[in-house]
Amino acid sequence: MVDLSVSLAGLELDNPVIPASGVFGYGQEYKDFYDINVLGSISVKGTTAEPRFGNPTPRIAECKEGMLNSVGLQNPGIAEVVGRCLPELKKIYRKKVILNVSGFSVDEYAYCAAAAEKADNVGIIEVNVSCPNVHDGGMAFGTKPENVLAVTRAVKKASTRPVFVKLSPNVTDITETALAAAEGGADGISLINTLVGMRIDLKTRRPVLAAKSGGFSGPAIFPIALRMVYQVFEAVKLPIMGIGGISSAEDVMEMMLAGATAVQVGAANLVSPTACRDIINDLPRVMKKYSVTKLSDIIGEAHK
Ligand code: SIN
User: Fold this and answer.
1) Nearest atom (ligand 1) to Cα of 100
2) Structure pTM?
């Protein structure tokens, strides 16, 4: 018997595999494919104070080994998420979930976190200071350490739940924003969000995305995400959710060796809707292959 359980800032997870925010909605789309209760947790779509339609289309572009999105934080707003989406999710998923909150001001982040106090199935607040697809919000916060510090402090004050700050890779040194989040009182770090990229259509000779650029995700970014998780693990003594191009049980173990306590799987769910379940099912085989009986034992082992 192998043990897949991990403890994430006080939240006990059966296994470390979590669908990343933005690829799993509020859980409903996936319930017909498999019993989503096998998931360690779920990070729900990034939520803002008011409903948002998002960016104009096209807002998805396929690439080799990945994809670009410029969704622009489409969501029904925090009142609807707390009043309907989270209670609906509770009917089909019995564990605690991660509420990803975003905003255009420090107050908006804090407002969303405070509103989530009413939702008893929220186990962690994930502060998205790294969405590359909106002006004056998201990444505009996440690339400046002083903003990360201010947002983290405000959300910590507004919430009784553990707070993870989701960092942008679009910086020179990700340890600076990780340290700012730690100084602001973060209970953990999620990294990485997408890398800014673009495609140009040869026929129209114009950018494929209406927003011109978008966030690149998928297997191609895995080595970058892994390197940043490794760096952040050395810089701050906080639990990490590793995100970026994870698509196999081997990738999960590599991320954990770099320092992740749990992982979020993003684009792989859009390639195969059963990706997370398949990874969880395959973990025992890969653990046995590498003589691991307790998965949490390998967290950060690559640093020894
Ligand atoms: C989006 O809605 O634009 C994607 C969210 C993100 O990258 O944080």
Assistant:
1) 8
2) 0.97
